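#struct-pred

JT: dropping the chains for the assembly here, can someone run the whole complex?
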Amino acid sequence: MTASFSRIGAIIGADFRIRFRRVSTVIVFLLLSAFAYVWIPAPSTGRTLIQINGQRAIYNSGAIGMGTASLGMIFVGLFGYYVISNAIRRDVITRCGMIAASTPMRSGEYLFGKFLGNLTFLATFVCGFMLSSMVMLLVRGEARIEPLVFMEQYLLLTPPALVFVSAVAVLFESIPWLAGKFGDVIYFFLWSAVMGLVVANETTHGAINWVRCFDFTGFGFMIDQMQRTLQTHSVSIGASNFDPTKPTILFPGLTLTREWIVPRFISLLAPLALLPVAVLFFHRFDPVRTKQVSGKGRRNWLGKIQNLFKPLSRRAVALLTMPGRGGSFLGAMWIDALLTLTLLPFAFLAFVAITITSIFIPPAATLPVVFAALAVIISDVVTRDRRAGTLASVRAIPRLRENYVWWKLGSTLLLSFLLCAGPLLRTITHGGVALGALICGIVLVASTATALGILTANPKTFIVGFLTFWYVVVNDKGASPLLDFAGFYGRFTWATIALYVCVSVAAIAIAQIFYRTRLART
Amino acid sequence: MLAIEKISKRFRAGNYGVRDLSLEVKSGVIGLLGPNGAGKTTFMQMIATITRPTSGRILFHGQDVAKRPNELRRQLGYLPQDFGVYDNLTATEFLTYFAALKGVRSKKRVMEMLESVNLHGVANRIVGGFSGGMKQRLGIAQALINDPELVIVDEPTAGLDPEERVRFRNVLSEIGFGKLVILSTHIVSDVESIATEIAVMKNGALLTMAAPETLLRTCEGHVWKAVVSSEQFDQLRTTLKISSAVRKPDGVHIRFVGPSPAIAASAAEPELEDAFLYLMNFAETTAPAA
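RK: done, full complex below.
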C-alpha cells in the first residue's frame, strides 16, 4: 500500500515539475491571470462583470468570486483539456513509459497518478486565477474583501469540472482512437453537450432531476441559484454593458442549498468512474498498441480524409512552388508556407472553403470562424521542425540560422494571407480602415503564433492563448472597440489597429531577443 | 534464470517480429547481435513484459512471466532503444522518479547510482541539456537503481561517440558479474570484449547462440584476405561479402567471408565481425519469418 502511494506521489510530482518548468505553462498561467483584469472592468467604462436585467452587481466577494469562478471554469473545461491531454503521450514519445511499464507499477496506479497530476495542474491554475481575481477585488472592489466567501464560490463551482476534465483526459489518452485529434474534437462536443444539457434542464427549473448529477460545469447550479436569489433569467457574466440609470444590485454569492448537496457530490465523484474504464483500455506502452496512439501506425479517420485530398493539394502546391525557386530568403519563406499545405491537406481544403465562402457571404459573418481555423492551421509552423528533428538541418541552410524568427514569421504571414485571400479581397470594397483592421488581425495572429512558438516550442500555448482571447472577443460582440482586433464587428478604430500593431511588434521583438540569446549560448 | 520456450510475436498484418525462438541463459553478458529488423527489440520487449508473445512461454526462475509479470519486473532493469528523458527534470529528480516506481526509497541509493555512472557532478542539472552519452548513462543508472538480477539494454551505444561507447561498455561489463545482462546491438565491437555468450538473430529467428570462441570457429576456413586495386575493389564490393577494407599504398587490403575465395586470396584468422557476416549471409535461418 505504501509503495502504491509512493509510486502515485512520484508520478504527480514528476508531472507537476515537468509542466511547471515549461515556459509555455508560465505564459498560459500569466495570460489567464491577466484576463482577470479584462473581465473585471472599472464601472466607469460602462461595463461590468455581472449584469442583471441591466443592473450592475456591486463588486463584492460573492459577485466577483462567482463571476470569475464561472469564467475560469469555462476555460478550464474548454481549453484545460487541450493543455493536459499529453501526459501519457509524453511517456510514449520519450519511451520513459516503457521503463515505467517494466516496473512492478500497476496500470491503475499509473493512470490514477496521471489523473491526480492533471487535477493538481488544473487546480493550481484555478488557484492562481482565483488569487489574481482577488487582487482585482482589492483594486476595483466596492465592498470589504471576504476571502472565505470568495473561495466558497470557487469551491462550489470548479471541483467537478476539474475532476471531469482530468478524468476524461486520462480516459481519452488510454483509448487509441481517442488519443489524437479525433479525441480533441469529440471532447469539444462532449463538453458542449454536457453544458447544453444542464442549462436546458435548468431553464425548465430542473425538470429532470438526474441531469443535475452531471452538472460538471456548475452552470446548472449557478443558473438555479441566480433564478432563486434574483428571480430573473437575464444575467450576463463577463465584461458586459449595464444601464447606469438603474440602481446597483447586491449579489451575496452562491450558497449550497440542501437539494444541491447530493447532485454536486455526484458531479464531483461520477467522473472517477471513467478511470477503471481507462485501465481496461490502457496500452501499458505495448509498442504494438502505442503505434496507433503516436500516429505512426494505422491512420485514423482524420488521416484517411486528409489522404483523400492529398493528390489534389499536391498538384496545387506543385504549381504554387514555382515562385519559391531561386534560393532567395522570400522564396524560402514561401516554400515553408507551402509545406504546411503539403503536410496538412486539410489546410488546403480550408483555403478552398474560405475562398468560395467569401464570394457568397460577407466577411463579417465568416471572419470569427476563419480566424479560429487560421489559428489551428498556423500554430505548428514554428514548432514542427523541432518535433520532426529537422531543426539542425534547417539551420544549416544559409541565412536561416540567424534569421530563423524572420523566416518563420514570413512563412506564417504568407500562409495566413493566402488563407485569408478571399476575405481580404472582399474587404477592399469596405474601405481603408476595414482592410487595415483585417490585415492588422492577420499580422497579430501570425506574429503571436511565431513568438509563442519560439518562446515555448509548443503549439498548444498559442492555440490555448489565442482561442481564449478569441472567445472573449466573440462574446464581447464588438461592445469594446479595443477587442475588435480584426474587424469582426466593424467596431475597430485606428486606436485598435495601433494597439495590435504594437502588440505584434513587441511579440516579435521578444521572440527575436529570446532566440538570439539562446543561439549565442549554444 | 531465464528460459525462453518457442516464443513468437505475430503482428496484426500477419508478419512475425519473432518466430519460434528458444534459449536458456543463467548469468553473464549476452550479446544479442542482428541487423536492423532482425527482431531484437521485439524479443527484448517480450522479456521486459512490455509486449506479450503471441505464443510460447518466458520463464523467469521457473515462473511463467505472462502469468506473474511482477516477479520478473521486481528483478528487472530495462533501458529501451532511443530512450528519451524528461527534459525539465534534474538528474536526481529523474532517477528518484524511477526509483519510486521500482519501490526504491533510499535517496542514498540514487546518489550512489549517479556516482557510479559519473553524473554526481551534474546531479542537480536539468537533463535536457545533457549530451547523448550522459543521457544514456542516466538511462543505465535508472535500469540499475533497484539492483536487478536481469538487465536488458536495447542498442545502448547508438549515437554515442567512440569515447562514450567505451565508457558505456565498461559500465556494462562491471555490472555483469552475478547478473544476467542482455545487450542488443548491430555493432559487433560493442559486444566482442564483454559478452560471455553471443546470440545472433535474423528475420525474427535465432541463428545461433554460443560463446564468442565457438562462434569464431563456425567461420574457420571461410575468411579470406587479399590486396586489390581500387578499381577491382569497386567491382568486388558488390559481389563479395567484405568485412573490412583498408586503403594502403600497395592497394586496398580486404577481408571477406565465403565458402571459397572467388579471387586470389589467402586464408585469414577469423574475427567476430567475420563470423557475424558469415552467419548473416551463409548460415541457414532455422525458422524464417513469414
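JT: nice. The radius of gyration of chain B is 21 Å. Chain B touches chain A at residues 11-12, 45, 48-52, 70, 73-74, 76, 78-89, 93, 96-98, 100-103, 105, 126, 142-143 (CB under 8 Å).
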